[in-house]
Amino acid sequence: MSGLRFEDKIVLVTGGSSGLGAEASRQFIDEGARIFVMDLAEKGILGRLGEEKATFFQGNVGKPEDCETAIRTCIDKYGRLDILFHNAAQPTPMTTVPFHDLAKFQEIINTNLCSLFYLARIAIPQMQKQGKGVIVVTASTSALGGEYGMASYAASKAGLLNLMRTMAIDHARDNVRINAICPGYMPTPMTEGLGDLINVVQESIPQGRGGDPKEVARAALFLASEDASYMTGHALVVDGGWSAHSGAPNLLKYVPQQVSRQ
């Protein structure tokens, strides 16, 4: 035995050309998997992963026909689908509901939430046929509570979590496990638009920094592996303590500190 957790496993990664998706793809390959990447653009991912270990499919997860074609193409090529890591998402415009463009709201809900439905309705029957399978979904800490100016993104990610939970209990006895990761802030192409606000965001994180995509990818691979064999319907938070904070100000900054007796 090689000791690799994903030896000869077939993994379909959406949004796999950059950021967290690309890092997870690399880690899956390092642990023995073959990768089928679905994204809007290739962005040189095959050169980084190696064409002998990865296949690229250009498609939009917001289109049901693209989702179905991607999964069926993956199965036609490799004969199976062991793991679906659904990571693709679209960022939100920072605005309040009265000023949020209606078409953009519907687009974000479709891309971030409905896409899981489009993919799962094709992937789950294949996994049932195989006798087992795993789906891991990238949600967000935005799914766990309201966030200023992020109505469409927060709504899409919160819906994603309950869709994940419902599918998990529906298919638990089919030996299909379905879980989610909830990352906090990470420096990825999707968060580059924050500009100077990145410092404000990082200051609000108890660990004082954003997450490295490598750290978050390791959490996704854990859920995809047999190490998490008794976990389904779970949302694993990876956020440096961000969601553990109640939102109260840090009064320790203003209160004289006692000297340790040790």
What does this structure look like?
With 262 residues, the chain is of the alpha/beta class. The protein has a single domain, classed as Rossmann fold. 38% of the residues lie in helices and 15% in strands. The protein contains 7 helices and 7 strands; from the N terminus they run βαβαβαβαβαβααβ. It has helices at residues 19-30, 45-49, 64-78, 102-130, 151-170, 197-203, 213-224; strands spanning 10-14, 34-39, 54-58, 83-86, 133-138, 176-183, 235-238. A 7-stranded parallel beta sheet has the order 3-2-1-4-5-6-7, with helices on both faces. Strand 5, helix 5 and strand 6 (176-183) form a beta-alpha-beta unit. The longest helix has 29 residues, at 102-130. It is globular and about 65 Å long.
> What is the helix/strand order?
EHEHEHEHEHEHHE
What is the architecture at the second tier of CATH? Answer: 3-Layer(aba) Sandwich
Could you say which overall geometry the principal axes of the C-alpha atoms support? globular
CATH superfamily: NAD(P)-binding Rossmann-like Domain
Number of strands: 7
Strand order of the largest sheet: 3-2-1-4-5-6-7
Kindly report the CATH topology: Rossmann fold
In helices, the fraction of residues equals 25-40%
InterPro entries: NAD(P)-bd_dom_sf, Sc_DH/Rdtase_CS, SDR_fam
Keywords: NADP, Oxidoreductase
GO molecular function, one term: oxidoreductase activity
Pfam families: adh_short_C2
Outline:
The protein has 262 residues and is α/β, with parallel strands linked by helices. 38% of the residues lie in helices and 15% in strands. Keywords: NADP, Oxidoreductase.
